[in-house]
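ok trying this again, last paste got cut off
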Amino acid sequence: MKRVMYVFGMTLALCCCSTKEEKTPDPVSTEVKSESNVKHLYSYYDFCQEDPGCEFWGFSGNEDFGRWSNGDTATIELMAAPKAEVTVKLDVDRVICPDEPLRFNVEVNGERVSNISTNGNSSVFVNVPKENLGADGSIRMMFIFENAAKPSKYNPENHDGRKLGFAIKNVTVYGYCLNKD
């Protein structure tokens, strides 16, 4: 029953909160009110902007397509409501490895929650168990790259000294929780 409620709630949150994220210029955080006892949460962070609206480490400066991760790890700090059911959508614009998928683990507040493989130009979804949220709803999401590399590994003429993993375009946090009212 719990799993059915989770799937129902996340489906409802994704349907009620969908927007044209590509056209959203600023960080957005909203709470969708409903007549039921469920609170729907939505936050959007644009990594093409100088300030995406959240704390982050292990990323290069913004470029027109987003930001490259820089190193073997990168971290983003996000917020949700305490005890919320949360899914984080990562829009990955590109990856460093042209002939194989980029592989990385995702940890939330120090606990591994997912192992991901992507070829870029896609959305990656990470379900965050409510047990992994901080007491205040905080989400410290760390990406641990298995095959980050310097661009010269694939193109000897590229002298970029950074060790890159993925270029992230934006991050969307979807969640829901029961109202206490």
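PB: full thing came through this time. DSSP finds one helix and eleven strands in the chain.
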